[in-house]
Amino acid sequence: MRVLAVDPGLTRCGVGVVDGLPGRRLSLVEVGVIRTPSTDPTPRRLVALEDELREWFERTRPEAVAIERVFADTNVSTVMGTAQCTGIVMMLAERRSLPVALHTPTEVKAAVSGSGRADKRQVTAMVTRLLGLDQAPKPADAADALALAICHVWRGGTQSRFAEAAAAQARTTPTRHRRPTTAGAARR
C-alpha cells in the first residue's frame, strides 16, 4: 500500500510517501516540506499549497491518504491554517476516490516508537531506522509526515480492512424487523 501522509500547516506542510504492508519492510518513496510565505495573503497561500499538493498526488500515485488530526491550540490562527490545509488534502483525495484517515499525534508516536509520549527526537530516530535511511529526514515536519505514513500503513490499513469486513458482513446479514413496542406506538 502506498500512503501519502500530510503533517498539515500553512507555513510548513510536511509531506511523506511510504510504500509498505503491515508486518513487511517499509520503503521511502518521497519526502519534503511545502512552504508558503507568511507575508502572502491566506488565499494565495492556500492556492500555492493546493498546487504543490496536487503535484504530489499526481507524481506519487498514493492508494491512501493520512492526515494528522487537528487539535485545539491556544493560537487560533495556527489551528485555522492547519484546518484549512487539512481541507485541501481531503478535497484532493476525495477527487481521486482515495480513502482518508486522520491520526492523532499520540497515535502516531505510539505506532512508531511504542510510546505516545515520545519526543520529536525519538520519533525521528525511529522513522530513520524503520525506513532504513542513512540520515534523519529534516526538518521535523518531514519526519512527522513519514511517521504518520508509517502509522497509517501499520494501523490504518488494518482498520480499513476491519471496516470493509464489517461492511461486507452487514450487506450479507439479513436484517430483522422488530415490532413496535407499546411505548413506541404511543408516541405516534
From TrEMBL:
Cofactors that this protein relies on: Mg(2+)
Question: Where on this chain does Mg(2+) 1 bind?
Answer: D7, D141
Question: Where in this protein does the record put region Disordered?
Answer: 164-188
- Show the catalytic activity: Endonucleolytic cleavage at a junction such as a reciprocal single-stranded crossover between two homologous DNA duplexes (Holliday junction)
Compositionally biased intervals (Basic residues): 174-188
| Gene3D superfamilies in the cross-refs | Ribonuclease H-like superfamily/Ribonuclease H
Self-association and partners: Homodimer which binds Holliday junction (HJ) DNA. The HJ becomes 2-fold symmetrical on binding to RuvC with unstacked arms; it has a different conformation from HJ DNA in complex with RuvA. In the full resolvosome a probable DNA-RuvA(4)-RuvB(12)-RuvC(2) complex forms which resolves the HJ.
Q: What is this protein called?
A: Crossover junction endodeoxyribonuclease RuvC
- Native source species: Intrasporangium calvum
Name of the gene encoding the protein in the UniProt record:
ruvC
